[in-house]
Design brief:
2 copies of one chain form a homodimer. The first copy, chain A, is an alpha/beta fold. Chain A contains 14 helices and 13 strands. Chain A has an 8-stranded mixed beta sheet with strand order 3-2-1-4-5-6-7-8, with helices on both faces. Chain A has a 5-stranded parallel beta sheet with strand order 10-9-11-12-13, covered by helices on one side. At the A-B interface, helix 8, helix 9, helix 10 and helix 11 of A face helix 8, helix 9, helix 10 and helix 11 of B.
Amino acid sequence: MSLLEKIRNRNAIIGIIGLGYVGIPLALSSSKAGFRVVGFDILPQRIEGLNARKSPIKYIRDADIAKMVDAGFEATGDFSRSKECDALIICVPTPLNKSREPDLSFVTSTTELIAPHFREEQLLSLESTTWPGTTEELLLPYIAKAGLTVGEDFYLVYSPEREDPGNTHFTPQTIPKIVGGKSPRCLEAGKALYGSFIDTIVPVSSTQTAEMVKLVENIYRSVNIGLVNELKIVAEAMGLDIFEVIDAAKTKPFGYTAYYPGPGVGGHCIPIDPFYLTWKAREFGLHTRFIELAGEINASMPQYVATKVVQALNTKGKSMNGAKILALGIAYKRNVDDVRESPSVTVLKLLYEWGAVVSYSDPYVSAFPKMRDHAFNLESIDLCPETIASYDAVILLTDHNDFDYKMIEANSDILIDTRGKYRNNANIIRA
Amino acid sequence: MSLLEKIRNRNAIIGIIGLGYVGIPLALSSSKAGFRVVGFDILPQRIEGLNARKSPIKYIRDADIAKMVDAGFEATGDFSRSKECDALIICVPTPLNKSREPDLSFVTSTTELIAPHFREEQLLSLESTTWPGTTEELLLPYIAKAGLTVGEDFYLVYSPEREDPGNTHFTPQTIPKIVGGKSPRCLEAGKALYGSFIDTIVPVSSTQTAEMVKLVENIYRSVNIGLVNELKIVAEAMGLDIFEVIDAAKTKPFGYTAYYPGPGVGGHCIPIDPFYLTWKAREFGLHTRFIELAGEINASMPQYVATKVVQALNTKGKSMNGAKILALGIAYKRNVDDVRESPSVTVLKLLYEWGAVVSYSDPYVSAFPKMRDHAFNLESIDLCPETIASYDAVILLTDHNDFDYKMIEANSDILIDTRGKYRNNANIIRA
């Protein structure tokens, strides 16, 4: 039976490689559409948890995982089982190394594990964000080496993930999906697969175009956040509240979209993805100046915030050295539990280096996770008037809905607001 | 009778100073709302034309001007008549000088003309785009000098124009209007006035905030156009069509807004307004790096386009020197007749300097207008197959709806497209 037929009658088995923020929602969607799904990961804990019907992600319910397992889903660390699968979808992280260069080691090591098992009538799709050309330059050679011919007996596509953790307005099914194929028949296979469980498929002319689309989306976001962060500094110097300015500007019914400043950018996309283009552009002798400027300004925001805290303490005759500081929110954005690349952590680290005694409270993160560059041995503290009053300064870093903002305002000695939650209170320091 | 009462019962007389792209729509709206309107200008031709019921703007009909005149509108060059007016609204241009510094001479010369006639219970509103602080630093002193007290017997507001020529989705009445007052009573007067003929008034806390709002709107636009122009160059080097990339990216239902590249930026706002903030920020020791980068990249686009034309001719063994070049569209954007700051003109100038014999066709601009830096003695040519075929190269610079794109494509020897109108035709050069 051809791949297209198998997809059409839901006999295709879908292999999802990398069971994280992208892979799990994808597994849920394809399982729900009637496909049998095999999930691959290298973390034994992740595999065991899923098979035991536990969700590793806070906003995905155990019940949904259980339902998927009942429908035949299985997680495994045995990559030879990729041979069973008709479609293989790679959803592994693509970080940057310490020199801010693309680190595609997860993609290549994954491909090394599955390539020996490539067979006829298989579809391989890469979803990880990466530089234009990756799919053809990195993955295609493995297919040729396996004695298969792309577009004839094997299909290769790139289809970027568009997950937005915490966004309740859209589901994986309702977010249009970009698909670029190595050949017209590859594209056809990709459209058939994703079209089985996603409402709208957006075909583009090549895998490179699809790769570029994803980068442009996140570059746009990074640059616009960088811009408002720079404008915040200018507005602040002029005595203006940038949040008031933005809220007024966004009443313009065309030609303006509101982005808000903050203590920096975080998460696995915005601080990282744009530099994939920067790196590839160098091959063509080109600079991506907007990306670099946005990166520079966004990366400088934690320092800006830390300096505001120092100044605030100073007005009360206190030094940072020895000061008791409470950080509110260490997740990289509101209402999520993800602290990857969180600017809150960088702020805490800076204050700690200045000698502050730091604490944090985050309803989504009960214990400070072990991170590559930071090792705080802290647990989230519960907020009550006495606790808040016991700190020299309180910094709002992540504006979770769960915080009791009035209680915080009423009991903080010094309150620093990086999210524009407080207005018209001259005692609160904007940062 | 107090100003507020006069506004409420439509007995207030509204004086509009500067009868151009902003002033005329404003006069029409306020007249339609039942106010008597006096228009002030320094150009005798403009005054005579309006009093003779002629519209000076292509997209405003003579019939609308006639109706306004019938309702009592009168244009005049006698600024002493500002004394008759209860509200004075300044809508004069705020350009940049040759050193790219704010040129507020129209605002100050206008104010010099009306200030001797300031009287009690008058409202003065500035609508011209300018740096935060202008209203208080520049206008307020005239009021004090006239022996009046702002907020007590005289009212001062800043309310930025949000005109978007060619936009048919919104009218002056349906675009929300930002108003910032020097004092609460000033704001109240401003809200009453504009609320009489505009659906939604957005009050902000100060005139400076209102000034900043307008700049942020246009800075956002300038930066996003600069960003896509830079991305266009990178995409082009990688063999990708940036227009295809953007059209695919904009299928993302959140977190992305499409802006399109082009031959540069034009019009009276985007190339100019952002530098008003740049200039003011220097007073605070701050740089506005996004604005400067956007300005630099946008300003370099005509050179990029010109180089593409040179390269295209070169592939056919032709030099620019002596080449016959046809530019399609000299207006700064589609479907308008405005050539102010148009990048098309800069492209033409560059090609002319390289020795090209240049012509243009623009259904909106029948004769090349006299401009500060450019003096082409040209008239728009009519397009037909033979005419187009007679040129060595045709450059699409402004994508007016009226062009016959298929006919142009079929008859051009070399066709250069700066607007993404043509896709999937390898013979057409993207620039």
